[in-house]
Here is the input.
Amino acid sequence: MNSLSSPEQGRNIGEEGINFRYFFGGLLIFFALGMTLLLAVMGAPLFLRALVFFPLWFGVLCLIQAGKGVCVFLAAKGQCVVAHGTIPIANPAARQALEQQARRVHIISMVVACLLAVTLMLASLLIPWQSFFTTA
Here is the structure.
């Protein structure tokens, strides 16, 4: 894999962007897990526990973008990454294909994040987390 994007192959980010998204996505997923545990131990109300959706959404979005090689922000602007920055995608067919792929990435990331958030919220409600951190 080279360090530049290839819109004709359905990618608008290069290797550096992919590596950054993998790192940042994993970081956000671990942050969401820690946030869930902290809110559960504190006995926070359900609406506060629902806030775990946002780091999950961004984390899943980063991971899926990295896997597909598509940045949804750049695709919306019709751009791709090159050695000296970003440039507009000249091929209209490649641009349209990237926009469609970016929409799919966005929808999939929201659905996955919703499912993960609901799962974590249920786990935080059903598992007696506070009993693990109190001394008897």
